[in-house]
């Protein structure tokens, strides 16, 4: 009995000791764990296509159904500025360039084209006599012909009869000189020379076959007749093209036309003679644009005495940079995310502790080599991203900051009619086909910020868009064109198939 009491006492003491040693420690750990948990910020999940969606836990996007991804918070609160770590900049291979003003393009205009035959030095060799071809002295296409060279012999019954008339008139020349003169001129009409006519008179016999001579030098392009053919007076025997002069014809895109003028010097090379440079001056610019290729033909005259240049030969040309008396600010093409009146670049901010890039809308002008002329939005010395701009834009999009798809953030954070702006004088409503919330953003974003646009609101259920605008600046057709350019059909303006097919799956509406 005494032993049981001792064992019971030891058990109580052990339990008490365990409580004080381990129980309080566990409580401390729970408190510490609770404390540590409160120190960490809550993870936010977003949609890569709809960054306005933010949830405290993973799941599916309520708009498009895509898996949500963790949101990486940006250290900068400015929606126009995206901040990256040094490591992220290196991994993304972000490269920048300082822009400056220039009086000329750093690079000229590279163009391509073909050698063409000069149409001003072509001719047709014809027969002035009707009759049958007895012999041809030109055998094949491509043969060289010299002016004065014999090209054919013709038997002409009409010419034989005319010779007989001359011989008979010659016998009564003294008594009837006008008859003799008429017979003589008839042979002259058929291009017989005075020497040939005198030979007929001297021999007192008609010549049965007459030779035809080339009146033009060149290369035979087409052979129209064969021996034994009966031909009419004036019928073409051969088409001849001189290649001592040729045309260098280049195709210029209409966007580059401003850099090309008559009299400009073009240097070009050929595939056959890659190390030899040919130089010519522009002599003609086609007044009509090719509707299929949207190019304009530009022509230069080239001397070709050595016959190196052959028609249909491919050539690569180069127009030197065009000098301008006024200083022009140029931005590399690779820095501009899309072209148009409102283009976008990312500007690297100076004096920042971490790499920071500002979304900057600019207005660009014509193309100058590998650059665009800057009309507004940048100044000399600005440092723009020339490699990796899409990476920055995509990251800003995921972070719900200003980007190509989040242009409304630049306009005040809203793309709908609730934006607080002064109404413009005109309003219109028309149907635009679409499906989802992302469609709404894209449709409205195609107009928000455009000159003459006040407010825009597209209703997903009714498919109707309401626009407040100024008709003195922009009209309804222009607005429909802008909507169609981002992939959405209206009742009168259809989007290009390629643009429609590039829309996300959730935005593929049933086309009318």
UniProtKB/TrEMBL annotation:
Coiled coil: none annotated. InterPro entries: 3HB_CusB, Beta-barrel_RND_2, BSH_CusB, CzcB_C, HMA_dom, HMA_dom_sf, HMBD, MFP_Cation_Efflux. One of its GO terms (cellular component) is outer membrane-bounded periplasmic space. The chain crosses the membrane at residues 5-22. Gene3D superfamilies: 2.40.30.170, 2.40.420.20, 2.40.50.100, 3.30.70.100. One of its GO terms (biological process) is copper ion export. The keyword Secreted does not apply. It comes from the Bacteria. Residues 425-491 form the HMA domain. GO terms for molecular function: transition metal ion binding; transmembrane transporter activity. The keyword Membrane applies. Keywords: Membrane, Transmembrane, Transmembrane helix, Transport. Belongs to the membrane fusion protein (MFP) (TC 8.A.1) family. NCBIfam families: RND_mfp (TIGR01730). This is Multidrug resistance protein MdtA. It comes from Parvicella tangerina.
